[in-house]
């Protein structure tokens, strides 16, 4: 028996609770390892801010995901990819990665779910009909995931903005996916919304910590994979992508 709407609600609540509870511990870790955002002329804060709270989001996602997502190859690949892309963010938050290594890490993490089947294999266009993407499905889906990851990353510049947008987008994606009976994608989107909301308790202005690239990479990755996994046909893909855009 696959996941249900009840599973989505439970996953949302569990991810929110775990993220909320673990943010203070992530803050302490950030100070210990030097993942600190120092005050600067164009910054919004006048004191050092920890920026590893994305780890709390990851913990909420992983706990809820391994419990309520289906025990199949796609779900496992998404959760492993989530760890991989969060790891890229952790290194960036601590040491500051140049653009190219960061991009390579994002591509490598995105390949994990894509190679497991989380990809768009065909498209249907008005007046043209449906056609198979063939081998191009792999690079096109990876490109789409990496693009969303970086959109959320660039959005993360004001207290609570990225987490708030991700919460709204993920709740919308969850509702649409569940209504289309794409329940696995619905649960994934729901737990993403929960984890983002759990962090938002600490990230709402004035923020006590930042989720950093660890969190923005992760949330972008999860939104993108939920959208791809929830796509049934072109009109469903448009319905899933529109609120994200």
Describe the protein.
The chain has 245 residues and is mainly alpha-helical. Helix content is 71%, strand content 5%. The protein has 9 helices and 4 strands; from the N terminus they run αββαααββααααα. The strands form 2 sheets. A two-stranded antiparallel sheet has the order 1-2. A two-stranded antiparallel ribbon has the order 3-4. β3 and β4 (129-132) form a beta hairpin. α3 runs antiparallel to α4 and α8 (212-230) runs antiparallel to α9 (234-244). The radius of gyration is 17 Å and the shape is globular. The model has no long low-confidence stretch (mean pLDDT 87).
Could you give a quick summary of the protein structure above?
The protein has 245 residues and is mainly alpha-helical.
Helix/strand order, N-terminal first = HEEHHHEEHHHHH
Task: Tell me about the largest β-sheet.
Answer: 2 strands, antiparallel
Give the strand order, joined by hyphens, for the main sheet. 1-2
**Contiguous helical run count:** 9
Cα distance spanning the termini: 32 Å
Helix/strand class:
mainly alpha
Classify the helix fraction into a percent range.
Answer: over 70%
Number of strands: 4
Q: Strand portion, in percent?
A: under 5%
Low-confidence stretches: none
Q: Report Rg.
A: 17 Å
Rounded mean pLDDT score:
87
**Inertia-based shape:** globular
């Amino acid at each position: 028996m696959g996941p249900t709407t009840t599973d989505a609600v439970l996953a949302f609540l569990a991810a929110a609770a775990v993220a909320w509870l673990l943010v203070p511990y992530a803050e302490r870790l950030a100070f210990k390892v030097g993942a600190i955002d120092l005050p600067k002329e164009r910054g919004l804060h006048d004191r050092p801010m920890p920026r590893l709270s994305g780890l709390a989001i990851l913990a909420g996602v992983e706990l809820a995901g391994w419990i309520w997502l289906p025990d199949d190859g796609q779900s496992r690949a998404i959760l492993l990819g989530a760890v991989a892309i969060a790891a890229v963010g952790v290194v960036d938050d601590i040491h500051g990665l140049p653009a190219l290594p960061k991009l390579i890490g994002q591509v490598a993490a995105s390949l994990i779910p894509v190679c497991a089947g989380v990809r768009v294999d065909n498209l249907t266009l008005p007046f043209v009909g449906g056609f198979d993407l063939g081998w191009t499905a792999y690079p096109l889906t990876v490109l789409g995931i990496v693009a969303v990851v970086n959109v959320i990353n660039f959005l993360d510049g004001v207290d609570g903005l990225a987490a708030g947008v991700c919460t709204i987008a993920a709740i919308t994606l969850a509702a649409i996916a569940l209504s289309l009976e794409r329940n696995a994608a619905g649960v994934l989107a729901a737990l993403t919304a929960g984890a983002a909301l759990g962090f938002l308790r600490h990230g709402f202005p004035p923020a006590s910590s930042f989720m950093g690239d660890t969190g923005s990479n992760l949330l972008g990755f999860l939104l993108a994979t939920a959208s791809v996994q929830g796509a049934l046909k072109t009109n469903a893909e448009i319905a899933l992508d529109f609120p994200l855009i």
